[in-house]
Amino acid sequence: MNFVDSLQEVVDTLRSHPLRTMLTALSVAWGIFMLVILLAAGDGISKGVTHSFRDDAVNSLWVYGGQTQKPHGGHPVNRKITLTNDDYHLLSRDVPGVEHITSRFYFQFRTMTISHGNRRGAFDIRACHPDHKFLEKSIIKRGRFLNDLDIREARKVAVIGVAVVEPLFGQEDPMGKTIVLAGTHYTVVGIFDDDGRSSEQRKIYVPISTAQLLSGATSDVKQIMFTLDEKHQERSDAVKAAVREILAGHHNFSSQDKSALRIRDNLETYARVTSVFSGVRFFVWLVGLGTMAAGLLGVSNIMLISVKERTKEIGLRKALGATPRSIIRLVVEEALLITGISGLVGLGAAMGLVHFVREHLPVNDYFREPAVDLGTVLGATLVLVIAGVLSGLVPAYRAAQVNPVVALRDE
Asked: Which of 31, 193, 249, 337 is deepest in the core (most CB within 10 A)?
């Protein structure tokens, strides 16, 4: 029997039991469909969470002053710890592994009305050091960011976000023009963009020394942020301990008093989130493979039933000279046809749905650009087909061992 005749016979056999064939094929297609959809969903959520870290440097520590909860050095509890310029210089000098460092200072109100000529708008103001652009991943589109000379001379200069340009300047070129902030004129020296949320593009940066001077010659800062070089990124706990020791000595509080100083570790947060999604990916594969296994079990059972129903036919074939090998091939081809076609149908439907969702999903920060590696799912489909063939081997072997005389007597 040639291949075409063999295939035609398998198709005729499957068509003779349409409901059974359809349900078996559906179980296999559903298994690969669910695996692809689960992988894409996990990928979309993972990208959404990872995307939320795009705004700030992942290898960064953010230090905030707090309130003491332990008495120390004759000082009572509930003492407020306020960071200063001196703390900034201490950390930049004494903390190992510091790559980029900046402080932040805010005016009386973080959001203020800014004007240029007759145009006005409310924007967030951040007073900082030059390295702030590395912490916030600011992208300079025109001009420059703040520099060390701006800090030393307390210059009245500003770097504005791309979303500030149109409300304040319209079609006018903002470079070199002035804006009025809290009654003081600042010259625009740069325009920046930010890949973070749209609100990040509505910021205005000014030198921290200028803002402190205009706020009463204060040296207080709201927070200190710095990135770690590659060598110290895996030792962030030791770096945090060093920060506590340095600032505890400077402000005279216990280094064991966690409430006196708050440290936000973006490295630790990112690692924790990454580990969670490693578990999610394992769970997705577990559920998907379980669904596929259920479909393969269905194929195996159907093959057993098919062989049982065709006992007389198999006996007759063997009586007419059919070899055990030809009997095994007949049953295996049936399993191969069901798993192969239904697996590809399930794969095609799932990939089509993933593509549709990716193209039409509204932009959001929680689920982004779901995708599945084509090589991975094709490999899974191939494994599914091979497993389907193997699941047909047992009933095929049983069919090959049927005694023709016994088979012909079967009722």
From this structure: 31
Helix (H) or strand (E) holding 336: helix 324-360
Is residue 296 a contact partner of residue 388, using CB atoms and an 8 Å limit? yes
Reported as half-sphere exposure (CB side, CA atoms, 13 A), residue 219 has a value of 7
Q: Give the Cα separation of 162 and 190 in Å (integer).
A: 10
Q: Enumerate long-range contacts of 317-322, CB under 8 Å, 24 or more apart.
A: 318/402, 318/404, 318/407, 319/404, 319/408
CA nearest neighbour of 205 among 216, 192, 223: 192
Assigned token pair, 380: 């899974």
Q: How many CA atoms lie within 13 A of 91 on its CB side?
A: 29
| Contact residues for 80 (Cβ-Cβ < 8 A; gap 6+) | 65, 66, 67
- Contact between residue 213 and residue 206 where contact means Cβ atoms under 8 Å apart: no
Q: What is the pLDDT of residue 123?
A: 93
Residue labelled with tokens 């068509």: 15
184-193 vs 157-161, strand pairing mode: parallel
CA 341 to chain centre: 33
Judge whether 44 and 216 are in contact, CB under 8 Å. Answer: no
State phi, psi for 198 to the nearest 5 degrees.
-60, -25
pTM of the model: 0.66
Region 310-339: what's the mean pLDDT?
Answer: 72
Unique residue bearing structure tokens 């973070």: 196
- The reported pLDDT for the residue numbered 268 is 77
Report the distance separating Cα 192 and Cα 133, nearest Å: 9
